[in-house]
Design brief:
By secondary structure, the chain is of the alpha/beta class. It has 2 domains: 22-162, Collagenase (Catalytic Domain), CATH 3.40.390.30; 168-402, TIM Barrel (Alpha-Beta Barrel). It has helices at residues 34-48, 62-73, 105-114, 119-134, 143-161, 174-183, 190-199, 218-227, 240-249, 272-288, 301-310, 320-323, 328-347, 363-367, 379-388, 390-403, and strands spanning 13-14, 22-26, 54-60, 81-85, 97-104, 168-172, 204-208, 232-236, 253-256, 293-297, 314-318, 351-355, 374-377. The strands form 2 sheets. The protein has an 8-stranded parallel beta barrel, surrounded by 8 helices. 42% of the residues are buried. The structure holds pyridoxine-5'-phosphate. Pyridoxine-5'-phosphate is lined by residues 172, 174, 208, 235, 255, 257, 265-266, 296, 316, 355-358, 376-380.
Length: 407
């Protein structure tokens, strides 16, 4: 970590493809599956949102790693993996370089044999260890750091190997209506958009009928009820007016959200703990109409416990704090909080959805969590659709939710 290893850019080896600057080079005397290793590295970097940074991977034997270890780190003995980061504190986005990872295949092979595992798996694990170092983690800084690092490595190994029950992706088409309302005419029509979203493979359509009708109109919800073939989610405030509309239209599920007229978008979760009995009554009224209910809540323990008491079927975790985290450490903390809360909710018998602020860089990491059954994503998909078309935008997001990366 202390120095940047001036590893040669490969003359022989796998050059980066045009999407991802991951170089893999081997000085090892035997043939190795370099392409496979590069794919693993690309997948991890995509999931971490580090895909634009350059990474060099060099595979060597014990003699060469001893030499590198001695020359650059003053430790003239063999080891399994060494990371050379651009900075000691983690990714440096300005430089465009993440760093280099040197792995001894001899040591990896021995460790694999000792653990009764394969060389490929051991190389993957060492690659991940190297990447986590480049992210700024350092197990030599004490027990707490070491535990954090191990946790991160397990998370990334899961991304590579875990068979996941895939979550559903429901697309919120509110902002198609926002564009329509900008001119007050009738295009683009969110009802047509919903059809395209379904054709692209989304598992459902979401709309938020706001009290001020700033984007979705009553007419949209009525038409969508007739046309949506997958699942229609109606987001709304728990007001008498909205409860009456839901009872008449009968969406497949209602997500209750807090609403303030001045806000640009739903800013925080419902304070279920405070609203208590009012929400319980709204949930009961929706249940009387045969409509399941989800509550949009911040990832806080007291909100989950209060949600359970309302009789709701489901919670939607507000992912805004995670999505808007200013740096990787904060994002990690918010991620851990979501993991904890998703487990608590599921263990309390609530189904778990998630949404708000999710985009093409931060969704894959959450998609690995098996507790989350459904993602509700709107703004980023509609924004991307302006540039690449709705079908492409939905399909790219589906790839992230179902496979953890865009192919
Ligand atoms: N879930 C809920 C409850 C929301 O209110 C919103 C925003 O309308 C979303 C998900 C989607 O958020 P975004 O548009 O940021 O993807």
């Amino acid at each position: 970590m202390e120095a940047r290893f001036k590893g040669d850019r490969p003359l022989h080896g796998i050059l980066p493809n045009n999407k991802m600057p991951v170089y893999v080079n081997s000085h090892y005397p035997e043939p190795l599956e370099l392409l496979r290793l590069r794919r693993a590295a690309q997948r991890i970097l995509r999931t971490l949102g580090l895909a634009d940074l350059e990474l060099g991977i060099l595979l060597v034997d014990n003699r060469e790693i001893t030499d590198i270890n001695g020359r650059w780190l003053k430790r003239p003995w063999p080891t399994n993996v060494i990371s050379f980061g651009q900075t000691p504190d983690g990714p440096d986005f300005d430089s465009g370089i993440l760093g280099d990872i040197v792995i001894s295949v001899d040591t990896a092979r021995k460790e694999a044999a000792d653990a009764d595992s394969s060389l490929e798996k051991r190389l993957d694990a060492l690659l991940i260890h190297g990447i986590v170092h480049l992210m700024g983690f350092d197990h030599t800084l004490g027990e707490q750091q070491s535990e954090l690092m191990k946790k991160k490595e397990r998370e990334l190994l899961d991304i590579l190997y875990k068979e996941r029950i895939m979550a559903d992706l429901c697309i919120n088409v509110d902002h198609v209506a926002t564009i329509r309302q900008a001119r007050g005419g009738n295009e683009p029509d969110p009802v047509t958009a919903a059809g395209l979203v379904e054709l692209a493979g989304a598992d459902g359509v979401v709309v938020h009928l706001r009290e001020d009708r700033r984007h979705i109109q009553d007419r949209d919800v009525r038409l969508l009820r007739q046309t949506v073939q997958t699942r229609l989610t109606l987001e709304m405030a728990a007001t008498d007016e909205m409860l009456a509309i839901a009872a008449e239209i009968k969406p497949d599920i209602v997500t209750l959200v807090p609403e303030r007229r001045q806000e640009l978008t739903t800013e925080g979760g419902l304070d279920v703990a405070r609203l208590g009995s009012g929400l319980k009554e709204a949930v009961a009224r929706l249940h009387d109409s045969g409509i399941p209910v989800s509550l949009f809540v911040d990832p806080e323990e007291d909100q989950i416990l209060a949600s359970e008491r309302t009789g709701a079927d489901c919670i939607e975790i507000h992912t805004g704090r995670y999505a808007e985290a200013p740096d990787m450490n904060t994002q990690d903390m918010e991620f851990e909080q979501i993991v904890k809360i998703a487990r608590l909710a599921r263990d309390s018998g609530l189904r778990v959805h998630a949404g708000h602020g999710l985009n093409y860089r931060n969704t894959a990491r959450l998609a690995v969590l098996e507790e989350i059954e459904e993602f509700s994503i709107g703004h980023s998909v509609v924004s991307r659709a302006v540039l690449v078309g709705l079908r492409n935008a939905v399909r790219e997001m589906l790839a992230l939710v179902k496979r953890g990366y865009i192919a």
